[in-house]
Amino acid sequence: TSSVLSKDKDKSAASKDSTPEGAAKRQEDGAETAKQQLLDIIGNMKVEVSYRKKLQQLKASENKKQAVNKLEGPDSESSMRQGITENTQRDKPLNPELVKAASAVASSLPRNKKQTESELLAQLRRHEETTDEQKKGRTINIRNVISEMTVKRQSPAQWGARISSRISLQLDEDGQRIRPERSSTQSMDSRWYFCGFSFFVYRSLKVGKRLNIFTKASTEPEHALKTVSSPTIWDLEFAKEVAAVTAQPPRNGFEEMIQWTKEGILWEFPIDNEVGMEDDAEFHEHIFLEKHLEGFPKEGPIRHFMELVICGLSKNPYLSVKQKVEHIEWFQKYFEEKKELLQEI
Amino acid sequence: MAAAALCWALRAARQVLPLSCPRQVRSYHVDWRMLRDVKRRKMAYEYADERLRINAIRKNSILPKELQEVADKEIAALPRDSCPVRIRNRCVLTSRPRGVKRRWRLSRIVFRHFADHAQMSGVQRAMW
């Protein structure tokens, strides 16, 4: 989120400079020759331009999102929006309808209309570019790949220090504290292994744009297999056997606790007070219990007594509806058995 | 309805752990008195509802007295071990009937033993 905040600050300054440039660029790219694409890629290798592009993209995407959110009421604009999403996949040059739609959207927004219009058009053109590239199969966008990587240059002394620190950390994991003297002798041998990796800064795996280098494995055959056969008893037994054979004894206290939780010996934290209690009944079924009083006489001490019982039950949060109904039915049975007694009185 | 409150407590105390888990089963009782106490607890749990309902009829100023007398006889006819009054909170480890702290279910001697060996979580020797 901090990066977004910094980009927000820089937007107001850089956006006005970048948008007329961006609009002009995009109009040139309408022809879309390979040469121009290459030139674009090389030109965008510089850090400044790529940063501006990111700002532009962010702002355009934000504007689009705002436009989408604000226009959910009126139907005409929503239909135009649908028109936008459909048309992007058909024509190569921008449709005049699209342009009209973009201008209408921009005019409805309270901000700078020309700016938003140009940004929307830029966003549309970018969508078209990506769809065309994906159709042709060239999904690898080199700019994305290289923009994420930064070349760091360090002196060999620093290399040695970094590597030795890495090795000492790795050795410490085994539980033995090795002195830096020993680590420096070992580092000489393994320095050559680590040389190649110093060019790319290690960042977290999920940061950055998707490169679309790998295609997702298709999940269709899995679904087909599952629908064919429901697990038979033999399958279950086999699965249990496999689990029993492959189950390793717990290596530490955490794994022991995990095993206990699976077996049910240990509760799950944070403690859920309603585990095992599945009261699907609504509150009115708990409180309004008069409908169960139909078997009783409408007047007399018994009715009075049962109304008190119901009053008490409605205030009871611990019993389920079934239990309350059983309670009332027990009384019904009891009074029916004692009917002769009651009639004597 | 104080009796109702007791019965609610009895039910709530029996909240079972999630269905898939095996309940903890005790196979060793320190002495026969403890075993008898365990039997009484089980019976009290079984008959708790009935006793509650019959007592609700008995401790009543609305219903006729004849009904209440009949209810008296009925509750007296229930097995003797089903009444919760016969349950004694014995120490869980030594079956000592007296000097048992309710929170830990342990007698004072066992409690002291464990607390001194630092096996009671959050228990410290008092000093002030």
TrEMBL record, chain A:
Coiled-coil spans in chain:
none
Where is the chain membrane-spanning? none
Q: One MF term from GO for this chain? A: structural constituent of ribosome
Q: Which domain of life is it from?
A: Eukaryota
Question: Which residue intervals are annotated with compositional bias (Basic and acidic residues) in the record?
Answer: 1-14
InterPro entries in the cross-refs: MRP-S31
Transit peptide: is it a keyword of this entry?
yes
Which Pfam families does the entry link to? Answer: MRP-S31
Q: Where in the cell is it found?
A: Mitochondrion
Polar residues composition bias: residue spans: 76-87
- Principal localization? mitochondrion
Sorted keywords for this record are: Mitochondrion, Ribonucleoprotein, Ribosomal protein, Transit peptide
Ribosomal protein among keywords: yes
Region (Disordered) location = 1-33, 59-95
Instruction: Report one GO cellular component.
Output: mitochondrial small ribosomal subunit
**Annotated PANTHER family:** MITOCHONDRIAL RIBOSOMAL PROTEIN S31, SMALL RIBOSOMAL SUBUNIT PROTEIN MS31
State the name under which the record lists this protein. Answer: Small ribosomal subunit protein mS31
Q: List the source organism.
A: Vidua chalybeata (Village indigobird)
Q: What is the lineage of its organism?
A: Eukaryota, Metazoa, Chordata, Craniata, Vertebrata
UniProtKB/TrEMBL annotation, chain B:
Q: Which GO terms describe its biological process?
A: translation
Q: Which UniProt keywords apply?
A: Ribonucleoprotein, Ribosomal protein
Residue ranges of the TM segments:
none
Q: In the record, what terms sit under GO molecular function?
A: structural constituent of ribosome
Supply the SUPFAM superfamilies for this chain: Glucocorticoid receptor-like (DNA-binding domain)
- What Gene3D superfamilies has UniProt attached to this entry? 1.10.287.1480
Q: Which family is this sequence assigned to? A: Belongs to the universal ribosomal protein uS14 family.
Q: Which protein is depicted? A: 28S ribosomal protein S14, mitochondrial
Starting at the broadest rank, the lineage of the source organism is:
Eukaryota, Metazoa, Chordata, Craniata, Vertebrata
